[in-house]
Amino acid sequence: MIRITVTINGERYEREVAEHRTLLHFLRNDLGLTGTKEGCGAGECGACTIIMDGRAVNSCLVLAAEADGAELETIEGAAAGGELSAIQQAFHDNHAVQCGFCTPGMVMSATDLLRRNPNPSREEIIDGIEGNFCRCTGYQQIIEAIEAAARAAGAAAGKGSDHA
Amino acid sequence: MLHAFSYVAPRSLDELLAFLSSHGDDTRVFSGGTDLFVNIRSGLVSPQYVADLKTVPGLREISFTGQEGLSIGACATVNELLAHETVCERYPVLRIAGEELATLQLRNRATVVGNIVTASPCGDMTSPLLCLGTDVVLVSARGERRIPLGEFITGVKTTQIAADEIVSRLIVSTDRIDASGGYRKLKRIKGHDLGVVAVALVRAANTMLVAISSAAPTPVLLPEFDARTPVAEIQKSAQAAISPIDDVRCTSEYRRFMVDVYIRRLMEEVPA
Ligand SMILES: Cc1cc2nc3c(=O)[nH]c(=O)nc-3n(C[C@H](O)[C@H](O)[C@H](O)COP(=O)(O)OP(=O)(O)OC[C@H]3O[C@@H](n4cnc5c(N)ncnc54)[C@H](O)[C@@H]3O)c2cc1C
Ligand code: FES
Ligand code: FES
Asked: What are the structural domain ranges in chain B?
């Protein structure tokens, strides 16, 4: 066992963890943060996507021990104060959720994409979610939701400042 | 679930190398872990210790000098390589091939060096690095040695690395700096599938380099060609050098066919 300290969605956690524990299992089983999903457990599906020190990663292929000192963002942090984030709202409005299993990972990848690139083209959206499988929607609604979220953020930014 | 192993986080290179001198046979070092943890999970390897290279200072750097060339540190990720200005401008084939490797999330962790040490016949970084002329720098408590990439990889997933050694960095020569390049990879789904076959081509002033992966136990670098060599001659040389297999992804016949197609397309696409 080793002792680690991580910040998750702004909150500090200090825990003893088995050295072979994956970050995904640490989040889900030790901390009860079950929003992050496990699909394949092997880097293929993206259901376990979280943001670690500002970068999207597959938490199934990271050890909890490696995250000592890291800043993590998970889906639980998306709806700050109980309000859906713009991306979550856009997924809701555009029917981008069917069974919902891929959704937490998709929302985290979309969050990462829109931070790096607030105005992505359709191609860039497809590249941004290349690491996330969806077995239900056929992706169209997800792509449209991310386009809508980008538009909504652009409109909000436009309102808030003098220059467009 | 992963089997119970101990996680080692060395604070210096000396500490790591001393640890490997005594425990090298029971240890796997790792950086991104995108190969190691998949292999541990499937029971392919079961080390007693995993040693994290990322806690060792000074292994992450990508740097360029006119004398030495491009140095890629052990912990430099593929996405860090893709974001590096000198790489994008002066070694374009590395950017083009790097973009083909896995997915965005994996490239945020996966390292260039890990891709080389894994020595998979379909590793995406090996062929372009072979075309550019790359050396592998190995260090251990016994000292340092430098070997050409083509000699470092000895077979399917085997290399010259000893149990007490790590690869500290790669050095890409300046021989083909500013050369134009291209990379064509046949796969079923981007990021979710291993390459079925891939070809890298680098065109320098008067010469052309071609390397092929997933068509032999190791990626194959063809002998250097004169820039005016006709396509058919390069294809003939490629067909003689490769030994593709039939497997679940396709037949050897299809691999041979696609190697010829990609050589032709790259010759058309990559500017002289
Ligand atoms: C879903 C999925 C898709 C993938 N797709 C692709 C793809 O399209 N193309 C491709 O080429 N690869 C692909 N890979 C494989 C993998 O992501 C790459 O090979 C990656 O570059 C490995 O880097 P890493 O840092 O994660 O390696 P690690 O897992 O950290 O290490 C890999 C191996 O090398 C050893 N090692 C690592 N660094 C050193 C060092 N400095 N010194 C000595 N030994 C070392 C480790 O002990 C281990 O055996 C994929 C993997 C997954 C899970
Ligand atoms: S659970 Fe991590 S990628 Fe599938
Ligand atoms: S909504 Fe079911 S997998 Fe995407």
From this structure: 6-55, 62-172, 180-269
Q: Give the pLDDT confidence score for residue A164 in this predicted structure.
A: 40
Nearest CA to ligand 1 atom 37: B114
User: What ipTM did this prediction achieve?
Assistant: 0.94
Output the pTM of the full model.
0.96
For the Cβ of A68 lying below 6 angstroms from any atom of ligand 2, the answer is no
Chain B residues whose CB is inside 8 A of the A49 CB are 105
Which of B266, B204, B206, B197 is CA-nearest to residue B231? B266
> Nearest C-alpha of chain B: how many angstroms from A110?
12
Q: How many CA atoms lie within 13 A of B207 on its CB side?
A: 12
Which among B129, B126, B6 has a CA at the least distance from the CA of B69?
B129
Please give the average per-residue pLDDT across A25-36, as a whole number.
98
In chain B the first and final C-alpha atoms are separated, in Å, by 51
Over residues B125-183, the pLDDT tens digits come to 999 999 999 999 999 999 999 999 999 999 999 999 999 999 999 999 999 999 999 99
Question: Residue A64 C-alpha to ligand 2 middle, in angstroms?
Answer: 15
The atom of ligand 3 lying closest to the CA of A97 is 1
Helix axes A140-160, A103-116, angle to 10 degrees: 40
Burial label for B25, CB within 10 Å (0-12, 13-18, 19+), is: exposed
Domain end, chosen from A77, A110, A131, is at: A77
Confidence (pLDDT) at A163: 45
Domain with A116 in it: what CATH number? Answer: 1.10.150.120
What's the CATH number for B62-172?
3.30.465.10
CA distance B260 to B256: 7
The number of the ligand nearest the C-alpha atom of B136 reads 1
Dist CA B32 CA B116 (whole Å): 13
In DSSP notation, B84-139 reads: -HHHHHH-HHHHHHHTTSS-HHHHTT-BHHHHHHHT-TT-TTHHHHHHH-EEEEEE
Look at the block and give the residue holding tokens 């046949």. Answer: B186
